Request: fold
Amino acid sequence: MVYDSVSAAKLTEKVAEVIAKALKDRGMEVTSVPVGDAKHLKIEEYDALLVGTPTMAWAPTKPVKEFLDTLDAGKVKGKMAASFDTQMRSFISGNANKAMEGKLKEKGFTIACPHLLAYVKSEKKAYHLLDGELKKAEEWANKLADSLAK
Reply:
């Protein structure tokens, strides 16, 4: 799993941690790293790739876009992938998952399950996950585990 988390609250990282724990609880081996530490990973050596990011200006963060651009389609074609993002609950916030899924498909990945949207809110100039979003992330990870196990 490769993710970016830009707010001081590290909300996308919290979602990534919940997903990783749920997958590990299902017996899966998980490597989870911030996108800045992903350069050393040989993605072709993994069975699946999970990518997570906050939605920024209707898109993934620049480091996540750059990471996806560097993937060698010849080495990852046919592998499974899934994405998740954190975003404000608003029709104008956009959706980074659409761009990530598009890039993953372009590189030859098969999307393992529908993406996860984890909603955040801003209160007193600080971001927080909405109630229930971490539970939703755990449930999503269990569905992902089912899909990956097939």
